[in-house]
Amino acid sequence: MLLSRLATVFAAVTLCRAQISEYFDEKLTVTPLKDGKVASTLAFTTLLKNASPRNVERLHDDDDSQHYTLFPLALGQILREYGVTEMHLTLNAGKWNYDSWGHPVEPGVGTGAELWAWIGDGALSTVDARWKGLRNALAGLFCSSLGALDELRTTSPTEVFQPEGSLPSSTPHQLRHASHPSEHVCTENLTPFVKLLPCKASAGLATLLNPHRLFDANWHGMGVHVLWHEDEGVEVRLTFQTVSDPLRNYQARKQDWSFESLFGRKVERACPAARSSIVEVSLPQDSPYNLSPEPTLAEKDVAWFDIQPASKPVDISMSYMPDFNPGLAARLAKPSTPLSVQRTLKESSQAHGQLSVVLKNHESYPIQAVYLETMPWIVQFYLHTLTATLDGHPYTSAFSNLSYIPAVPHSRPSTFHVLLSIPANSTLKVTMDVTKAFLRYTEHPPDAQRGWDLPPAIIAPLNLDTNRMYTPTLLVDLATPDFSMPYNVIIFTCTLLAFLFGNVFNLLTRKFVVVSLKPAPSSTIKED
Amino acid sequence: MLPLTLFHLFLGLSVSLLGAFASDHQEETVKGFFGRNGTSQSTHTNNWAVLVCTSRYWFNYRHMSNALSMYRTVKRLGIPDSNIILMLADDASCNARNKFPGSVYANPGRHLDLYGENVEVDYRGYEVTVENLIRVLTGRVEPSVPRSKRLLTDEHSNIFVYMAGHGGNEFLKFQDNEEISAFDIADAFEQMYQKKRYNEIFFMVDTCQANSLYSKLYSPNILATGSSQVGENSYSHSSDKDLGVAVIDAYTHYVLELMEGINKTSQSTMQDLFSSIDPNKINSHPGVRSDLFRRPLDKTLITDFFGGVSQIEVVDDEEGVEEEAGLVGGNGKDSVSSTAPAQASFAIPERRASHSKRHIEPVSNTSTTSEAKELWGWVGSSTRAWGAVALFGGLVGWVRMRS
Asked: Which InterPro entries does the UniProt record give (chain B) (predicted)?
């Protein structure tokens, strides 16, 4: 009886263990853009099959031991420690130009650091405590100051940041989103990123991660995305996107590119741990070109290369016949995105300003888009001044479903969420007056005269199949005090007090007397 | 009844005395183990480094380059990233003004890239503050601070603390809006001494009037050096025409030049380091404070602080005999590192042969008195231990049989 029970338990355990398997895929997508630049996206996906997020109700118990071979252990430990189901971290530098470059392969292109996570509720520790732990753990893992994404920058915009994977239905989940637009990204963020890959940077497409060329690109950003697919398992996707400019050198006339010119490297070896290693190249439609080597599979507008069986070293290159003509390219191409957005902050004084957003609809049908603003408390909205004009004329039916969580000074940012309807082929301008805060002396950063970066606004179209768009960040100039004043006040006050006290003390205690000096008689002087 | 208790008391005393003898022998063995590393008498078991650049802005490129030079040196000489706390107050490498992104150079002509492809910066940007530095040094960090940002030293750790930036008489400026004073640093080191967080500290400062920054230290086992005396400035070395800023400070430049010629097995001493800096070339007079440091400077190796060189003794599993496989320093053989496994394996069979000989004739091979004493001590201690156990067992058996 006991033996048969043990046998069934043993069989079940081995079967379960046998079903957990890991797959690693890598993919590079290269797209020539209409203004002569080249966008490339490297995506490294590790799938832990049949795994599921940790049960948050048992978070205080010891965890089951996790055995990974390809799945990054450092990241897995952090996620299980804090009961995180879905997490997205992006570190970007530059301004993504939607009008010229279209929509990126990975939608998270907000400048600076952006971290959002769906965290399970119901454990003994609160979601906020675990959010803080997650931020600091990721800050330590990726060498970035994500600890600064505290409650001064954290919001919960659940309608815009819906989970990209599935959430376990047994526990409720909460969203936490924070962004830090002035965060830099550099080689120290890429070093731990590369260490999470099975083949590191020595084999496969990861050899193209050359920091000297990646951080020289016009736009670059890295992303870490963790999702759970209910029927698949836990997926970790590490991405690195760049927009490089082959025409940057003034002698270059053609927008030719190759691995050597984009990354400074070729793929020397295939990664043996990778299940698939694919390069996808978008083919230009309007000018003759030459693509080498021969693609594995080619269609009208896309070509695929399978790296693993290819002869090494692999250097995919595209050369164009005619020179690049920027005027012609601009005339021939349609607007890259259905919606164009521009956001500005007009500041005429150090106390007030006006936020202005201009949305252009290039399509022939109306667009419904959610506009989300997570503004730090230093800039506060006057909601009653929210107005909309359409092609210059006042337009009253632009807004619906307005939801506003006001800012709490020194502690919480404001969340402004409105559904905009933009009619076909028209320009909608939305303006709102803002007031700027007067900060406490200790709240100013060391380089206070630079100003504060405001996080990007997010536009999520509802009736289009495109993903969310990010506006560029803004720089707001707040009133700065004279930082030498405390020193001046202390010196002046101490001088005054010393002067007053000294005079009064002398007047009260000092007495002037006349001392007469008699010559001393020499006979009474004795030597000892 | 009384004779029985007296006898038990006598037994207890004898066993404890034997135990004391045994631990004395262990102390001698440990001292002898550490003393085998050539001329160094250091008793540290691990190395840590805290490298701080306190200046912000592009024109202070050279301070970031200073800290990164020391980072490169300690990493090259064996301290792993997990034992290095690197604090850079600004981002010079991926700065928008940097014509060569991803690189920080140490000399004009750009021959040496200090950033490379494998760098981990623990505290960066606004996180480099006086409070964070003191918290890191004293270990009083918040529970949420991740492991890579903590200084997890113990009482056998040698710590190399390097600070570069703008400073003055008994202060160092952090990020243009706050200062750390020499008293703060002295108190932080004293807290570390009280909490047994270091074995020895080497404190190096490259700022204007740097020698004043270590003038207030009062804890033992600290060796300090600065780049200029009170009233003197420390100067930058040279600037690069394409970058447009000064790329390194003069003092750190000459330190780096000396360090580039040193590897893990080097027997160069701290005295060599201090003597190699020429005050005429750097236009300031460096100072050294060694009154708190108990070892002589010409016996203290540079790798005691800058390198992660460990004493290793290989123990043979089959016989349980300690083999003298001193693979580090002293006798000129390469240290156990990723670069020289082949040489290590050549060394071991040699020693095994000599040891097997020694094992057959234990008494005649022992030439030096210390080796003889050690062998006698080992033999004596095991005999004594077993004797005590047998005596105690016999006594208990006799008592049981009587009652």
From this structure: GPI_transamidase (IPR028361), Peptidase_C13 (IPR001096)
Q: Which residue has the tokens 């003004």?
A: B97
Best mutation target among B51, B56, B118 (most A Cβ atoms within 10 Å) is B118
Structure tokens at A59: 């978070």
| Residue of chain B nearest A444, judged by CA positions | B177
Distance CA A481, CA B270 (A): 48
C-alpha span between B144 and A112 (Å, rounded): 22
> What total of structural domains would you count in chain A?
2
pTM above 0.95, yes or no: no
Q: Write down the pLDDT at residue B12.
A: 65
**Structural domain contains residue A30:** yes
Contact list in A for residue B148 (CB cut-off 8 A) is 140-141, 143
CA–CA separation, A197 and A205 (whole Å):
11
For A120, the domain range is 18-326
Residues 6+ apart with CB under 8 A from A337: A98, A99, A102, A103, A362, A466, A469
Residues 165-204 of A with CB under 8 A from B: 183-188, 190-192, 201
Comparing alpha-carbon positions, the chain A residue that sits nearest to B127 is A145
Identity of the amino acid at A329: A
Residue A491 covered by a domain: no
- How far is it, in rounded angstroms, from Cα A459 to Cα A366? 15
- ipTM value: 0.88
Name the residue of chain A whose CA is nearest to B55's CA. A446
Contacts of B120 in chain A (CB under 8 A): 143, 188, 191-192
> Which of B57, B122, B147 minimises the CB distance to A143?
B122
Instruction: For residue range B216-236, list pLDDT tens digits in order.
Output: 999 999 999 999 999 999 999
Q: Choose among B332, B207, B193: nearest CA to B264.
A: B332
Q: Are residues A230 and A273 in the same domain?
A: yes
Structural contact between residues B149 and B123, judged by C-beta atoms closer than 8 angstroms = yes
Taking chain A, what is the end-to-end CA distance rounded to the nearest angstrom? 115
**pLDDT at A443 > cutoff 80:** yes
Distance CA A300, CA B19 (A): 86
